[in-house]
């Protein structure tokens, strides 16, 4: 079978996708600079699938590293590009890092795809491109709003770069996937999210609070125009999300669509508030999450959730995990991290 290059394949969504690719029979090579992950993730992938993916430690912004990788693996036919910096807050302080990492990686890959006979690239985008949407649920036709962070801007620019390169006649296809809020961990608890330092995202902060690493979860605002006043998101299980990548890459490699570029929202279609999510977690796990209401977080969107109909119909993909199961998986992963002495 054609080999898939997974950039950022030891990261959170990348590692779950490598598992699904291998379970679908694809040989994989990962490139990752381990800037926000570690080698043990590869052991976790091997324990789940029985297959150790090939791994190259390297930085995708370095053209020589990537050229050598394509020379070493002439059977690469598809790319899934996860290699990117992803913290919204950090991007406000380190914009050059974000533009350099996220855009140079993409440009290098696009540059090397044609000469190396790669048929397609799946790109990790985000619902952040919709900003504060005029209507929910959000379809792919909703207008793109001006980005509020360099991180968000790299996603918008990346989508434009891919579109321009393909419209200019590049000999490959692309599927752009706009994720809503990916959460949870593999049900085996062998892999999951490994936040660096104090988590900025809700679920890792919540599970660290539940286990006692953090004292209290701050709920950022209860005065939004939502039923309980807290923000609404579409929390999508990371394994469900990973499966969509396998379908997307297969679709390109097997030429199942005439379109050279396709864009899909990946969400559940359900909007869930922060307070509701805390309740679901507590009920699913039986563990209490001490929390307090604090002021709004600058830059937060009030409410956004997906209309995933297009992905459901065209990709034949649907999020199937319940939120309760997803919360149990996040908790099992947090317990595993403690067992391993990681945190
Ligand atoms: C953000 C980005 C998104 C990115 C994602 C992962 C924007 C608009 N969104 O999503 O593109 O893919 O991070 O990095 O840039 N919350 C609390 N307390 C906390 C943490 C979060 O109440 O301690 C609330 C937030 O206010 C929000 C929800 O939980 O309503 C989810 O927050 P978070 O997990 O940080 O993700 P987003 O901000 O939605």
Automatic annotation (TrEMBL):
It catalyses: UDP-alpha-D-glucose = UDP-alpha-D-galactose. This is UDP-glucose 4-epimerase. Its EC number is 5.1.3.2. Homodimer. It comes from Duncaniella muris. Belongs to the NAD(P)-dependent epimerase/dehydratase family. One of its GO terms (biological process) is galactose metabolic process. The keyword DNA damage does not apply.
